[in-house]
Amino acid sequence: MRIGVIGGGAWGTALAQVAARAGPVTLWAREDDVVAAINRDHANPLFLPGIALSPAIRATSNLRDLAGSEALLIVAPAQHVRAVLAEAATGTTPLILCAKGIEAGSKLLVGEVAAQVAPGAPIAVLSGPSFAAEVARGLPTALTLACTDEALGRALADRLSGPGFRLYRSTDVVGAEIGGAVKNVLAIACGVVEGAGLGQNARAALIARGFAEMTRFGLARGGRAETLTGLSGLGDLVLTCSSTSSRNFSLGVGLGQGQSAQALLAGKRSVAEGAFTAPVLQAATRDAGVEMPVVDAVCALLGGAPVSDVIEALLARPLREEHR
User: Fold this and answer.
1) In this predicted model, what pLDDT tens digit does every residue of 135-149 receive, in sequence order?
2) Is-catalytic flag, 107?
């Protein structure tokens, strides 16, 4: 199965590295310097420094070069997926969606966006606890591959899996997407706990209560509880809420230290997706009638509210039964 990858950032490059173990891969990147470095030096120093890439990866800045692909990994940021898919004209080629987020304005999941733009293309979602650099180095990683077409899901999992990179199949595309989108916002909140010096007890409580919010929203949108307790939900949440390697967690640390979101996000080439997802998620939760106070708190902080005021408001919420 010939694999094409759309997106030459850290995650797209890491996935190209994985796919190249079993055959040639064509990687599309928007940046000419990234394309040149991959083809000339077998490296991507801009987004994935210090990692030698497989010579089986060929980079291009022309989407037409992906025309022969039998499956496409879509690794553009969530807010750019619609434009990229429209430009790529994917036809009936299976799409493996690797972006985590909710589209602003439409409040659609990435899979729902893809279904609108590329209605003839089968859709799968790849999500779970995965730092790009570790994947590219071949360190052990396990992810969820969700696809409603079980035969296609099995074929894709067989093609991409290998030693140290295990894909567990699911048919719950919505649940896998919800976990990936919500965990980015919750990771910002956990970073705030770290930056504000609130302690490990607070972080553990926030992860647990945040996971409860993720589950409520996931069920409201049609996801399954077992998906949210798996790799693409709880697994990804634990990773991104506990490491400074997470861009979203690092953003939260800065917010917790009193820095502004505008200053922290300015000039960054890598995207902290949770900053864009948070206000969209907040609007979507209101549409669904789901209460998500941690998400509301993150939105307040991104909007410039003082950290002390936001924390005080969270801690002053009325006491309630845990599982209601």
Assistant:
1) 999 999 999 999 999
2) no
Task: Tell me 319's DSSP state.
Answer: P
Taking the chain, what is the end-to-end CA distance rounded to the nearest angstrom?
Answer: 47
95-97, strands of its sheet edge to edge: 57-60, 25-28, 3-6, 71-74, 95-97, 123-127, 141-147, 165-170
Q: Can you read off the two tokens belonging to residue 69?
A: 């692909």
Length of the chain: 324
3-class SS of residue 295? helix
Give me the helix-helix angle, 81-88 and 110-117, nearest 10°.
30
Query: 46-74, pLDDT tens digit by residue?
Result: 999 999 999 999 999 999 999 999 999 99
What would the two tokens of residue 65 be? 């070069």
- Kind of pairing between the strands at 3-6 and 71-74: parallel
Give the pairing type, strands 95-97 and 3-6: unpaired
CA 169 – CA 39 distance, rounded (Å): 33
pTM of the model: 0.94
For residues 75 and 104, what is the distance between their CA atoms, to the nearest angstrom? 17
What values do phi and psi take at 130, rounded to 5?
-160, 110
Dig out the tokens for 89 from the structure: 């004209």
Positive or negative: CA dihedral 14, 232, 217, 255: negative
Helix (H, G, I), strand (E, B) or coil at 69: coil
d(CA 285, CA 292): 7
Q: Are 272 and 252 in contact (CB under 8 A)?
A: no
Indicate the pairing of strand 25-28 with strand 3-6. parallel
**Burial class for 222, CB neighbours closer than 10 Å (0-12, 13-18, 19+):** exposed
CA distances for 323 relative to 142, 208, 216, 290, 320, angstroms:
29, 11, 10, 14, 9
Sign of CA dihedral 315, 260, 178, 1: negative
User: Please, are residues 213 and 296 in contact by the beta-carbon 8 Å criterion?
Assistant: no
